[in-house]
Design goal:
heterodimer, A: Rossmann fold, 2 domains, five-stranded parallel beta sheet, 11% strand, globular, B: 978 residues, alpha/beta, four-stranded parallel beta sheet, 7% strand, DUF5682 (chain B)
């Protein structure tokens, strides 16, 4: 099955690893968890020699250990977990890994949008069946959250703050009473959550103020703020990890030279520093300059060189891809990039040469095409 | 047979298993055991400590009680010794400070040099100090190198070590940030520049302020223990599953050693010291410095033992664990190494004092995790409260728990114990094997304590704006235990608790000033700020406190306090006001801040209101105390230094004169500064600060004229020198790129001081010549020159008007006309008489200039006027008010004065000459007057006087009046004896 999917969920992708971990796990497990909290952490952050395992478990999420620990502990407690952070910081990926490790199912997902209704959170009806047989448990379509309650699993709610406040508040009773009533039915009209049920929601900190959570809902979630990774080493690690995965998915044989990766990381670090010191929104790129954004740029460049280039990643292509991905508003973003290219990349290419020269050229061309 | 043979064997086997043996690993492992062995075998008992470690402090206390040493050698700069007895007058934490501004032997510009050694109550060194100072017959000897050597031994190349700008002793790599391995850490060295970024970086403003208590001083500390390079630290943190060094230390060394017996403690600490000593880059300068210090310390110990004849068995050497396992040849009393010669100190004059310190300042200085010192203090308090050990405390020590009484008793007990029980050194059994083999025996979960924390944090969070409830307290409790479980701990540490609290209480935004992490720090001990007691203050600070006493506020408080001085009702507060103004001048901005009231020349205060935060700025006052004995003296020095500075200008010197008058009452000192101002002015080659000079000298002249019988000599010299100086520079200032404002100010000086200058012997021709020699090209300066010529009478008003009209009529020059106007506007100050003309020129410009020329210039006009409000605007506004009609109705019929037809020349009517004998005489003999008039070139017209001398009407009326009332005139005549 794995081979037929464009993107396999974590529990499928790492099924074998999870099976093995479960077989060696002798720690105490809360509720119906498949792994103990320590093993969950190990699955996400990877193993070390000191863990004394027979096989190596690779690291899958890169970030501070305490975030993962706090998240796991929250899921073992009575409260829901809300991962909050800038776009592209790996919130959804962490949520997916957590649910895959804890209950082997990361697909019970509700995507929060402006059009999400309470039905998406609780249940809806199969209209034709209702007409034919009347309202019954068979004609009811449970939402992913309700399914998670019934099975004692982790339900996920992506982009919680994109859905409207009244819809969000449907979660309040689910999180505190842990049951959903179905008033349309006369019997069997309450779905109780089984032990092990919890919710992982993600929220984008850039959406603050759009649909703010009510204090009642805030109380029922523990917030874990995931910061943008700024540590050079871990960022390089993340980019390498994710691009390898993407390359495998696209079945592309192409090497990313470490020097180019350095150029990419350095340019993002520069742009972040510039954004941090910018006085107004207009002087900042619209992009959050997250790690995911870097992966996007690299992916873009790789695909471009693979299909239109000579199957080797070049600095020119990377420069063009960076401009192409980051220039979203014209003229503001273009002006910032132009300034960066002339003020930073150009002197650097003069000083350091190497890949920077090609990077300068590619970016310059892209800027002139766009403007 | 050594005590540790078994352990050594075991370790070598392990090394064999891991790496095949015979390599570096087995060398390191067996070397560590050797180090411990050697330390234990030393005749003089070495007590290894770590800074801010309650375990060290506890072990120290126990050891002191058991051993009762007669001499305590302490690893602390030897010249700080006299300060120690002053500690009892302070509330800890305070820092011992050495300060030097007069450098000799250090690179110029590296001063002021400042060294601080903070002392907290929860430290082993404090225990040793308190024991030694309060137990009779015990001697405390500081053996480390002097503060002078601290700077001598700093690597020199990074120029200014004193400023702490990431120079030599970059003490510590903050965990997580990869530091270059060379200068990553300083085990035992403990020299840290101030202002090292504290990890975490979530400090709020108040926190920042307290963290900056040490200023930019270099810190020295006893027993700093940290891995020698960043990778090792990162490795330990990673495998210890902790976030920062303080947490690692707490979990793996501090807690297990908290209740350990003396032997275990000593051996384990020495082992840790040896580990870090062996695992460090051998190339670094730091090791060389550390070894130098060890030689120094052993040399001092040997000297003292030889001089005092003390028995080494009755002595105790307290040093960082790193130095306890030193491998220098001089180590040990029996060392056969050649005697170490101490390098002489430089001639730098060091001053010593105590300054307040705080937990956060210590954390920032030594790169510790935020809150770690507070947690250590809390652990210490808990451990001592639990009983078992009575800590030493200096008698009379302020603050903290009241325990001095008990200490006194303990001291007496101690004396009794000393007499009877000389300690026989026994070979210590091997405690290391046990310590290394078994996991640390930790205390079980202290549920009550954790519950208390949970309830308190929720209360605290609520008070800080969080919507926290009892449910959160329960969640924090549960999460803490779960987190500790995930991290493999039997009980939650304060760090686990803080993480749990952040998880459960912190939401998407921080409602108040402090976030939950900061609240946890406050809860777990909070920052404690020390206070230097009155007796321990330098004379200047004591003097300040004494003199501010009439204000009736508690100067020790760290809050801002408002005081109101009603100087008319309470004239006795006047000296306080004077002092506050001086402090305002000398201290940082927010230490004393006037809310109402100002001190300016010619003003006398009636009421003043001040915000005082003297307690918070105690360090600044203490450091002021290094400069002099009274505030006045310091101020005098500062002012004198200001005018002697190579960059000083006449403007700054005049400012200093003004300050001297304002704060020190002027007099001889102001005259001295004024004389310097004259020198500076005469030596100046530019006129850049002419406006400043003009403004200030005018103010000073006004002050002297109003207060004294005459001008001081320097003022006269200044005016004459200035007159000659500016006359000389005027032609070149007109010609080169000097600003219009500057030239305007020069002219202002020349014209407005002219009367005084001429009376003092200056020559007006000099000015006329200077003006004639000036040939400016810039339009603004041309206009200024015309104004000057008008003032000097070289150009008439009509000619000037004709020139301006000519400019306006010439289409080629019109675009430059605004520049001329700018010049005229600047002329308002030096030639106020030209104001009507300036108004006229401005009005014409507004009327006739095309918009594309006029509009771009308007902002320039407005900014010029704004910049020079006091000089230009009043004149201009007054004149405009006189020229233009006041109401709308009159506007219709109004014609500008310059467009009115010239009034027919009226017959010049001379003032009626007063009648009297002189007039009569001249009228009768006009020849002499006619001749004089002829000589002067004036027409000799005599007003027609009616023959017979008919008196004019006024005279008639007076005569009639006197005739009617003769009594007054008669009385006057009688009085005059007529």
């Amino acid at each position: 099955m794995n081979n037929e999917m464009l993107r396999a969920p974590a529990e499928v992708k790492y099924a074998e690893e999870l099976d093995w971990l479960e077989s060696v796990d002798d720690g105490p497990k809360p509720f119906s968890w498949r792994l103990s909290p320590k093993m969950v952490r190990l699955f996400i952050l990877g193993s070390e020699r000191s863990d004394g395992l027979d096989r190596e478990i690779p690291q899958k999420w890169f970030g501070d250990r305490s975030f993962v620990e706090r998240s796991i502990v929250t899921l073992a407690s009575d409260r829901g977990l809300l991962l909050i952070g800038d776009p592209g910081t790996g919130k959804s990926w962490l949520a997916e890994l957590l649910s895959a490790a804890i209950c082997r199912n990361s697909t019970l997902v509700v995507q929060g949008t402006a059009g999400t209704t309470e039905d998406h959170i609780k249940y809806s009806w199969n209209v034709s069946m209702v007409i034919a047989k009347g309202q019954s448990r068979e004609s009811m379509i449970p939402s992913p959250i309700m399914t998670a309650m019934e099975r004692g699993m982790i339900g996920r709610f992506e982009e919680l703050t994109r859905s409207t406040s009244d819809v969000q508040d449907a979660l309040i009773s689910i999180l505190s009473e842990k049951y959903v009533s179905i008033p349309e039915l006369d019997t069997d009209n309450t779905v109780f959550a089984r032990p092990g049920f919890s919710i992982i929601a993600t929220a984008n900190s850039r959406d603050r103020g759009v649909n703010d959570l009510s204090s009642a809902l805030k109380r029922r979630f523990n917030f874990v703020r995931i910061p943008v990774v700024t540590n050079r080493t871990s960022e390089a690690e993340i980019v390498r990890f994710r691009t390898t995965e993407l390359l495998r998915r696209h079945r592309i044989e192409l090497d990313v030279p470490p020097t180019l990766l350095d150029v990419l990381l350095q340019s993002f670090a520069d742009l972040r520093a510039a954004a941090a010191s910018a006085a107004s929104e207009d002087e900042k790129l619209e992009s959050a300059l997250s790690t995911a954004e870097q992966i996007g740029v690299l992916e873009d460049a790789i695909l471009h060189s693979h299909f239109f280039g000579d199957r080797a990643l070049r600095a020119e292509t990377l420069g063009g891809a960076l401009v192409g991905s980051l220039a979203r508003r014209s003229p503001e973003d273009l002006a910032i990039l132009n300034k960066y290219w002339h003020g930073v990349v150009e002197p650097r290419s003069r000083k350091d040469g190497g890949e920077w020269t090609g990077f300068l050229e590619g970016g310059r061309q892209a800027i002139s095409t766009l403007s | 047979m050594s005590t540790f043979d078994a352990l050594r064997e075991q370790l070598l086997d392990a090394a064999e298993e891991f790496s095949g043996g015979g390599d570096a690993l087995s060398g390191i492992l067996s070397g560590m055991v050797d180090d411990v062995d050697r330390m234990l075998g030393e005749k003089l008992e070495i007590f290894p400590v770590c800074h801010h470690s309650p375990a060290s402090a506890l072990a120290m206390t126990r050891r002191l009680r058991d051993k009762r040493p007669k001499v305590v050698y302490l690893e602390l700069c030897e010249d700080l010794q006299p300060l120690l007895s002053e500690l009892r007058n302070c509330r800890l934490p305070v820092a011992l400070q050495a300060f030097a501004t007069r450098l000799d032997g250090f690179p110029a510009g590296s001063g002021p040099l400042s060294v601080v050694a903070p002392v907290t109550e929860a430290s082993a060194e404090y225990q040793a100090i308190a024991y030694a100072l309060d137990t009779p017959g015990v001697e405390l000897v500081l053996v480390d190198r002097s503060v002078d050597h601290v700077f001598q031994w700093l690597p020199r190349e990074p120029a200014d070590a004193g400023t702490g700008t990431g120079t030599a002793p970059d003490g510590h790599a903050s965990p997580g940030s990869p530091a270059p391995s060379g200068g990553a850490a300083s085990p035992g060295g403990a020299v840290s520049p101030g202002g090292a970024a504290s990890p975490g970086g979530e400090a709020d403003d108040g926190q920042d302020e307290e963290a900056a208590l040490h200023g930019d001083a270099v810190g020295v500390e006893i027993g700093d223990l940290r891995p020698g390079f960043a990778e090792l630290e990162a490795y330990l943190l990673h495998h210890g599953k902790v976030r920062h060094w303080s947490e690692w230390w707490d979990q793996y060394v501090e807690q297990p050693l908290a209740g350990a017996d003396h032997d275990t403690y000593r051996q384990a600490m020495a082992l840790v010291g040896s580990l870090f000593r062996r695992l460090r880059p051998s190339s670094g300068d730091r090791l060389a410095v550390d070894e130098e210090r060890e030689r120094y310390m052993w040399a001092r110990i040997r000297e003292h033992l030889a001089a005092s004849g003390a028995d080494p068995a009755e002595c105790l050497y307290v040093c960082g664990a790193f130095h306890a396992v030193s491998r220098v040849a001089e180590f040990g009393l029996d060392s056969g190494a050649p005697p170490y010669t101490v390098t002489p100190r430089t001639a730098t004059q060091w001053l010593y004092g105590l300054i307040p310190s705080s937990h956060s300042a210590i954390e920032a200085q030594f790169g510790l995790a935020q809150g770690s010192v507070s947690i250590a203090a809390a652990t210490w308090a808990k451990a001592t409260a639990r009983g078992g050990v009575t800590p030493y405390r200096l008698a009379g020590q302020q603050g903290g728990r009241a325990g001095s009484g008990r200490t006194g008793k303990a001291g007496k007990n101690g004396k009794a114990g000393t007499a009877g029980k000389p300690v026989a050194p026994e070979p210590a059994p091997d405690r290391l094997s046990g310590f290394l083999a078994a996991p640390p025996a930790l205390d079980g979960l202290d549920e009550d304590e954790l519950r208390g924390w949970c309830v308190d944090i929720v209360r605290l969070a609520r008070r800080n704006g969080y919507l926290a409830s009892t449910a959160d307290a329960i969640a924090v409790f549960e999460t803490s235990i779960l987190l500790a479980g995930v991290r493999g701990r039997a009980r939650p540490t304060p760090y686990d608790f803080a993480d749990a609290a952040v998880t459960c209480i912190e939401k998407d935004a921080v409602p108040g000033r402090r976030d939950v992490r900061r609240l946890c720090e406050i809860l777990l001990g909070g920052d404690r700020v020390g206070v230097v007691g009155y007796e321990a203050l330098p004379p200047l600070a004591r003097d300040v406190y004494d003199r501010l006493e009439p204000l009736g506020i508690d100067l020790g408080r760290r809050t801002q306090q408002r005081v109101l001085l009603d100087l008319t009702a309470n004239p006795e507060l006047r000296p306080c006001s004077d002092l506050l103004w001086m402090l305002r001048y000398l201290l940082p901005d927010d230490a004393v801040r006037p809310i109402m009231g100002a001190r300016r020349l010619g003003e006398r205060p009636i009421q003043e209101s001040w915000d005082l935060a003297i307690g918070r700025h105690q360090r600044s006052i203490v450091e002021l105390g290094y400069e002099g004995v009274t505030v006045e003296q310091v101020l005098e020095q500062r002012l004198r230094r200001k005018v002697r500075d190579p960059r000083a200008t006449a403007g700054t010197a005049l400012e200093a004169v003004e300050d001297a008058i304002l704060y020190l009452g002027g007099g001889r000192f102001a005259d001295e500064l004024g004389a310097r101002a004259v020198e500076l002015l005469a030596a100046e080659r530019t006129v850049d600060d002419a406006p400043e000079v003009l403004r200030r000298i005018r103010r000073l002249l006004a002050h002297y004229r109003a207060t004294g019988p005459g001008l001081p000599a320097w003022c006269e010299a200044f005016v004459t020198a200035g007159y000659a100086h500016y006359c000389t520079l005027l032609p070149s200032a007109f010609a080169d790129d000097t600003g219009v404002r500057q030239v305007g100010a020069m002219l202002g000086f020349l014209f407005s001081m002219e009367g005084l200058a001429l009376s003092l012997g200056c020559d007006r021709t000099q000015l006329e010549l200077a003006v004639r020699q000036s040939h400016p090209e810039a339009p603004a300066k041309v206009a200024l020159l015309w104004a000057a010529e008008t003032q000097l009478g070289l150009l008439s008003r009509d000619e000037l008007r004709a020139r301006c009209d000519g400019l306006l009529d010439n289409p080629l020059v019109v675009p430059a006309f605004p520049l001329y106007l700018s010049g005229f506007v600047q002329a308002l100050d030096p030639v106020p008489g030209l104001a009507p003309f300036v108004v006229e020129a401005l009005s014409k410009a507004f009327a006739r200039l095309p918009d594309p020329v006029l509009l771009p210039w308007l902002p320039t006009l407005i900014t010029t006027l704004r910049r020079n409000v006091p000089e230009l605007v009043p004149v201009l506004v007054r004149e405009a008010g006189r020229t233009f009609p006041g109401g709308l109705a009159e506007l219709d019929g109004w014609t500008p004065p310059w467009e009115r037809p010239a009034a027919p020349a009226r017959a010049v009517r001379a003032a009626p000459a007063p009648s009297g004998p002189v007039t009569g005489l001249l009228a009768r003999h006009p020849a002499a007057c006619d001749a004089v008039a002829g000589l002067l070139g004036c027409p000799a017209d005599w007003p027609e006087r009616p023959a017979g001398g008919v008196p004019d009407a006024g005279e008639e009326r007076v005569r009639a009046l006197l005739g009617r009332y003769p009594a007054t005139a008669g009385a006057v005549a009688a009085l005059l004896g007529g």
